[in-house]
Amino acid sequence: MRDFPVVMMLSLLGLLVAGADELKQGVETDQSSCTRVIETGQSVQEAIDSAYVGDVLCLGAGIFHENIQIVKDLTLRGSGQSATLLKGRRANYPIGIIGGEAKVTLEKLTMTSAQGNCVARFVCAHGLLVQGNAQVTLISVRISNNRQAGLLLWGTSWTAPQVAITDSEITDNRTNGIQLLGRARLQLIRSQIARSRFEAIQARDQSHVTVLESSISNNEVDGISMWDQSTLELQSSQVVQNRSGIIIRDGVKAVIRHGQISDHRGRYNQGFGILAYSDESPSNTGTLVIEDSSITGNREGGLVVRRGASVTLTNTRIIGNHACGVEVDASAEVQGQANEIQSNGADLCGYAPSRIRTPLAPPTDRQELRVPEDYATIQQAVDAAPAGAMIRIGAGSYVGGLTLWKPVTLRGSGSEQSQIQASEDGQPAISIIAEAYGVQLIGLAIQGSRWDGIEVYGEAVLQDCKLTQHGRAGLTTQGTARVSIRRCQLSQNNFGLSVSGDTRVEFIESEASENKYEGVSVGSLTGNPQVVIRKARIFKNIWTGIEIAGNSLARVEETEVASNGNGISVSGTAELLNNTVHGNQGSPFGHKGYGILAEEESLPICSGNRVYGNTIDFNEAAAKACQRVGLPDASSAQGRADTD
Q1: How, if at all, do strands 185-189 and 162-166 pair?
Q2: For residue 393, which of 378, 408, 415 has the smallest C-alpha distance?
Q3: Would you say 313 and 284 are in contact if contact means Cβ atoms under 8 Å apart?
Q4: Looking at the DSSP assignment, which residues form a beta bridge with residue 296?
Q5: What pLDDT is attached to residue 307?
Q6: What pLDDT sits at residue 5?
């Protein structure tokens, strides 16, 4: 019994020694993965310079004030994003430069606070510059608060730097989050790019970007901006709350699958979910494939396709965008099917094909439908109606954002009884797309769009309608639209009627009044619009009653043009017959109060007009055209000409 405690003590001692050996072995195993450990106060660059290919350099916790350069294969491992910080000491230089043919891994550290501007082209105060044919892997790395880009991949036509980023953050950098040039390649996996002063990702030349399971948010310019011949693959990722979401330019090839593109809030031709366009060169046409994705809540268009770009859209939700869900111009192409497109400013605009959108209601063969008795919304009734159907709209106020894509008649109970109100902060109130013909709008008030009230690319007739309080035009025509407007009132908009493209418009027995700029504006930089204005009243528009500009042709007859800034202004071509132009007294915006203001040879016919009581009845060119010998004009006895 006396020997028992000794035996027990020896046994316990053996266990403790064994445990200590195991613990020691574990520490050595952990340390064995580090070729060298560098603590604060020691030089990281000296350790890099003396390292062998394949070495693992481990940084302790703390702040390392250095600019480093790596041109050999190695790993630089910190003690954690928040524990190990690399801060540049030299102004105007990247914190890190990796080049040559080096294969480098950076792990568990932060690169932050590069200061200054640039010392040479692309050699600037970036977080990290990767050049040459270097291959870099970033794992659990933060690159933040640098004066220039977070990460620059500087490739050329003969060099292709590659960076793979996993479980990392690129945030709060003062220019781009990541910029790619030349043949650079980027792979972003389970990572975040946020709060860049410019784009989160900007890719140019022949660079390639892959984004997987990542988030791009709250950047002050675009989420992703692709240029030239670059390529993009985005899958299972979010691009949200930037100025615009994804911009595809020129010959870019892009594929988006299971993406969320939402809540972009830019203004003034920004705020798109996705914008795709090219320079229209056959060899430089951009293509975009979107599948199984959502494009929602963007302040401007959800998907906007212009100037030769081509998009395939499948199984995608485009919902709640404040402007057009899908907008397409004449030179672009969109195809696809099985897309849920609804509750946008208008679901389809311009040349967007109706086949890409799943109707909100199954078809019916009934030739007369009623809202709200048969269908809760006008759009449901339009989608269900057969060609040529009448849709009767009861008294009340209805949410707009309508897409009219087939020959139907919307007949209200009168413009004082049946109102179509643009969706909140939405535009337009009604879109008549290019493939639509035989559309009629009768006895309706359309009001309150942030931009245009009715946007017409197809063929339409309006009768006894009122278009008021729109942020741009009461009605605008584009493309090859054909529109007849009869007994309608267009008032209290910025422009009453805006006509452009190669459109043909009749404005008969109608009124354009109290608009902020022009009552009727006819003009186009590229097309040849033509307008007939007959027996109309154009009055109290602050700038000009009728503006005829560019390559346009207008015939104005038996119309009263009164109390505007200027009455009729012609720099296109106009025929003026038997009109009354009076009381136009100028505006605070420099309009002098001309009755008729014309350029030389812009009025081949000007006859039978009564022009009086304006501040200046004619300028010299208009006086010559309207008061020429042999063509007596009722104004000639009293019209005052400006011959200065």
Answers
A1: parallel
A2: 378
A3: no
A4: 262, 319
A5: 86
A6: 42
pLDDT at 122: 81
Can you give the three-state secondary structure of 319-333, one letter per residue?
A: ECCCCEEEEECCCCE
Record the tokens describing residue 386, joined without a space.
């057969």
Question: What is the mean pLDDT for each group of 10 consecutive residues in the chain (644 residues)?
Answer: 37 39 37 87 96 97 97 97 95 96 98 92 92 98 97 97 98 97 98 97 98 98 96 98 95 97 84 87 80 96 93 97 95 95 96 97 97 97 98 95 97 94 88 98 95 97 97 96 98 97 97 97 88 98 96 97 97 96 94 95 94 96 76 42 52
Rounded Cα–Cα distance for residues 547 and 554 (Å): 10
Q: What is the pTM (predicted TM-score) of this model?
A: 0.90
Here the tokens at position 88 are 């540049």
Distance CA 376, CA 388 (A): 20
Pairing of strands 123-124, 118-120: antiparallel
C-alpha to C-alpha distance for 66 and 84, rounded to whole angstroms: 13
> Measuring CA to CA, which residue among 340, 206, 321 is closest to residue 274?
321
- Whether 475 and 484 have beta carbons less than 8 Å apart is answered as no
Q: What is the pLDDT of residue 636?
A: 39
Q: Is 398 left (phi over 0), alpha (psi -120 to 50) or beta?
A: beta
β-partners of residue 332 are none
The 10 Å CB-count burial string (b at 16+, else e) for 199-216 is: bbbbbbbbbbbbbeebbb
Q: Bin 458: left if φ > 0, else alpha if -120 < ψ < 50, else beta.
A: beta
d(CA 227, CA 230): 6
Quick check: 261 and 273 in contact, CB under 8 A? yes
> Which one, of 389, 490, 485, 385, lies nearest residue 447 by Cα?
490
Question: For the residues of 199-213, what is the DSSP string, one character each?
Answer: -SEEE-TT-EEEEES
At residue 309, what is the residue type?
A
Which residue's structure tokens are 């009086």?
A: 612
Classify residue 192 by its DSSP letter. E
C-alpha 497/C-alpha 495 separation (Å) is: 6
DSSP-derived letter for residue 127 is: S
Beta partners for 304?
Answer: 275, 327
d(CA 357, CA 341): 6
Q: What is the pLDDT of residue 640?
A: 58
Q: What is the C-alpha separation between 5 and 1, in angstroms, rounded?
A: 8
Phi, psi of 589 (to 5 degrees): -105, 20
Give the other-Cβ count within 10 Å of 630's Cβ. 4
Could you give the CA distance from residue 190 to residue 178 in angstroms, rounded to a whole number?
15
CA atoms within 13 A on the CB side of 137: 11
Contacts of 285 (CB under 8 A, 6+ apart): 251, 278, 308, 309, 310
Position 27 scores a pLDDT of 32
Q: Which residue's structure tokens are 């009243």?
A: 537
Q: In this structure, which amino acid lies at residue 238?
A: Q
Q: Which of 502, 576, 504, 569 is nearest to 536 (CA)?
A: 576
Q: Is residue 173 within 8 Å of residue 142, measured between CB atoms?
A: no
Please say whether the beta carbons of 242 and 275 come within 8 A.
no
